[in-house]
Inverse folding.
């Protein structure tokens, strides 16, 4: 082990095993021989894909939040609901903490993740300044797992089933946009390759330093 | 899939290296407490105070688990009538209306998963804290499972939010949230924090220490 230079060594982030770095083909995962954690892999056109996905995601974010998800019809009365309503009505009912959490997990964090990825992919693809690249990467990495739109969608489905005997429900445009947005966010999570992106950021920083 | 070859299992820490937690760059162990030159975070060989923070979140979650399940989470009123219901009450109502599948989904997300998560974290933390002998790979799989599934417990919170927003028809029908839901949300968040604070590498450190101790004793036996 000691015969190798530092550049050829890596460590497993889950079990801290020291390993020699090996060459891998695109689409081939390198996994830890001890704990089977995925160490690194190669994504083809990762930055371009992230750019496309985050841009499409941001566009879909608008109808998903502005159009009604569900409309309830009882005795000629209509009650529509967008994502923000779920937080606001709990806030009105005095459940401030839950209102805040729903607001964060279903609106703010997904939005921040989309913006962070758009910033990262734009800076790397077009070679822009990228002064906040590190911060954007850290935010995206730490917010992973806290964006819960897919759980919100399951919540909508549970609510539909709970209410279907009591009242007439109509599914709105917002729900379809939300479903599409969730697919994009999931694809973003798969395409986001931290190991490779950090190397590209390192490269980007060294290049921009050269021009300074 | 490619598995790199290793000559014997040795951790980065034993060999004098540490791994950056955010960008996975390998540094010399002497860099502990300094900032990573690639991504700028503070470098630590292991998450500082991992066990303490993880225990603290877990114990608080356990304490709040009772109010979360005993206090009502929401009240459904039609024409001014209706009782507040707890998590379990809501599941029983679904069963009464012959919605077995959806009742199972809610039961899994709201009761089974948080309970399993609390038990699993207790086992993981005790193994490391008291240096118990254990199957290391199994423990790693256990951790990955709870880390992945834990967030789905937020389901009930979202359902309450959606129902409260939707069913606001004055006297005809009206749903409001109750404070049991706050306790439940805090339980879910705290178990997530507990899992984040837990450093999986501690499981393996503990395992290596155990294996070395075993080797030492067998050597002593031979000498005797």
């Amino acid at each position: 082990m000691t015969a190798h230079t530092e550049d050829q060594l890596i460590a497993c982030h889950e079990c801290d095993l020291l390993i020699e770095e090996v060459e891998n083909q695109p689409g081939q995962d390198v996994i830890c021989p001890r704990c089977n954690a995925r160490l690194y892999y190669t994504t083809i056109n990762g930055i371009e894909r992230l750019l496309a996905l985050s841009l499409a995601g941001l566009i879909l974010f608008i109808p998903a939040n502005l159009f009604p998800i569900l409309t309830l019809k009882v005795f000629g009365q209509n009650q529509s609901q967008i994502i923000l309503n779920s937080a606001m009505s709990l806030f009105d009912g005095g459940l401030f903490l839950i209102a805040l959490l729903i607001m964060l997990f279903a609106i703010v964090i997904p939005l921040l993740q989309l913006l962070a990825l758009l910033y990262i992919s734009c800076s790397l693809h077009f070679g822009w300044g990228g002064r906040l690249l590190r911060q954007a990467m850290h935010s995206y990495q730490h917010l992973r797992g806290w964006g819960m739109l897919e759980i919100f969608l399951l919540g909508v489905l549970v609510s539909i089933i709970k209410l279907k005997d009591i009242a007439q429900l109509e599914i709105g445009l917002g729900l379809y946009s939300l479903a599409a947005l969730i697919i994009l966010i999931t694809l973003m999570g798969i395409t986001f390759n931290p190991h490779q992106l950090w190397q590209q950021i390192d490269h980007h920083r060294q290049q921009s330093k050269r021009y300074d | 899939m490619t598995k790199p070859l290793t000559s014997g299992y040795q951790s980065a820490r034993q060999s004098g290296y540490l791994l950056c937690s955010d960008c996975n760059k390998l540094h010399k162990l002497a860099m502990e407490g300094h900032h990573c030159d690639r991504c700028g975070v503070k470098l630590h060989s292991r998450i500082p105070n991992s066990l303490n923070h993880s225990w603290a979140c877990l114990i608080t979650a356990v304490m709040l688990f009772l109010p979360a399940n005993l206090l009502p989470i929401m009240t459904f009123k039609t024409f001014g009538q209706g009782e507040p219901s707890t998590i379990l009450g809501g599941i029983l109502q679904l069963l009464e209306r012959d919605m077995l599948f959806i009742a199972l989904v809610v039961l899994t997300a709201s009761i089974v998963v948080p309970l399993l998560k609390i038990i699993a974290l207790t086992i993981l933390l005790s193994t490391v804290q008291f240096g118990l002998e254990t199957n290391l790979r199994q423990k790693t799989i256990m951790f990955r499972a709870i880390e992945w599934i834990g967030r789905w417990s937020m389901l009930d919170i979202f359902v309450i939010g959606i129902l409260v927003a939707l069913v606001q028809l004055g006297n005809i029908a009206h749903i409001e949230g109750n404070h049991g839901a706050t306790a439940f949300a805090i339980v879910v968040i705290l178990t997530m924090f507990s899992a984040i604070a837990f450093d999986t590498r501690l499981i393996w450190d503990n395992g290596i220490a155990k294996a070395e101790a075993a080797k030492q004793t067998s050597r002593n036996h031979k000498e005797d």
